[in-house]
């Protein structure tokens, strides 16, 4: 994989030139392609594919995939014609900020094309700044290198192939691509509506809204989609919660949500079926993800 490929970068800020080519010598380019190919094998080979829905964290031996992923056309155009892509250079005396490094190949057959592209998120510590004392060893003596440079790791964070984006860490993948359109997360309007739900009692609405981070918004969306608050009364939910040692207060036939974030997460996790009692220890746990087991 990645024979005769060209390394490129995605710039972090929005600009007409979305992609740049990394100009490097042939030997370095070949070694980098081999490194990314090996990194692909380490990330994905011999692992089970799980379709991404935003609620499941893959186990060791699994990876997530977003089907029909809309790859930015600038990236595909760059793979088609790498020579036509501008090389990374200074602009007004400074280099553009880098968001990700990628290497890809285009395979054409039967009037169709397929892309294989490996992406690595770029972190601030990968810049080699001339402001620092960058010391390199030669013949037992360190000397300072004052040129600007970048460091590329021997790993990748996601891989695109056959219209799928494959990755292990959602957190790392979303540092490269905007993935918000591929999972349910409650909007501001949904959060506001949740606060006034007739089956809930939230005394400090403003405080709840301020605490509504990504995790809470995803729980709200899943709870709304499951219609659990419509299908079960507050007393029924309280009774079910007591079976796994989760305390839920009911007032005026409404579930009363506490004001502290950790307690809110426990109750929302229960409403989204992510709390359970260990069958052996009898301890109550809050899961960080879930996936439905297919019935046989």
From TrEMBL:
Superkingdom classification of source: Bacteria
InterPro entries: KwaB-like
Name recorded for this polypeptide: DUF4868 domain-containing protein
Organism: Ruminococcus flavefaciens
């Amino acid at each position: 994989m990645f024979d005769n490929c060209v390394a490129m970068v995605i710039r972090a800020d929005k600009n007409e030139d979305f992609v740049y080519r990394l100009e490097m010598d042939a030997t370095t380019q070949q070694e980098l392609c081999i490194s990314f190919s090996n990194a692909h094998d380490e990330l994905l080979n011999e692992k089970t594919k799980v379709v991404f829905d935003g609620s499941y964290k893959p186990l060791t031996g699994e990876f997530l995939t977003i089907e029909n992923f809309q790859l930015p056309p600038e990236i595909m155009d760059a793979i088609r014609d790498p020579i036509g892509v501008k090389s990374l250079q200074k602009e007004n005396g400074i280099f553009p900020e880098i968001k990700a490094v990628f290497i890809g190949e285009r395979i054409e057959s039967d009037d169709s094309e397929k892309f294989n592209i490996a992406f690595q998120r770029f972190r601030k510590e990968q810049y080699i700044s001339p402001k620092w004392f960058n010391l390199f060893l030669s013949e037992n003596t360190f000397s300072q290198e004052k040129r600007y440079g970048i460091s590329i790791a021997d790993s990748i964070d996601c891989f695109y192939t056959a219209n799928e984006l494959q990755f292990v860490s959602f957190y790392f993948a979303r540092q490269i691509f905007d993935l918000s359109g591929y999972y349910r997360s409650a909007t501001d309007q949904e959060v506001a509506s949740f606060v006034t739900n007739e089956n809930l009692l939230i005394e400090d609405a403003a405080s709840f809204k301020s605490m509504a981070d990504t995790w809470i918004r995803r729980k709200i969306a899943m709870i709304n989609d499951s219609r659990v608050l419509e299908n079960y009364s507050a007393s029924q939910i309280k009774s079910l919660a007591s079976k796994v040692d989760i305390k839920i207060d009911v007032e005026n036939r409404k579930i009363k949500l506490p004001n502290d974030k950790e307690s809110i997460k426990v109750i929302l996790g229960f409403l989204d079926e992510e709390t359970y009692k260990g069958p052996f220890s009898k301890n109550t746990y809050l899961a960080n993800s879930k996936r439905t087991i297919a019935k046989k």
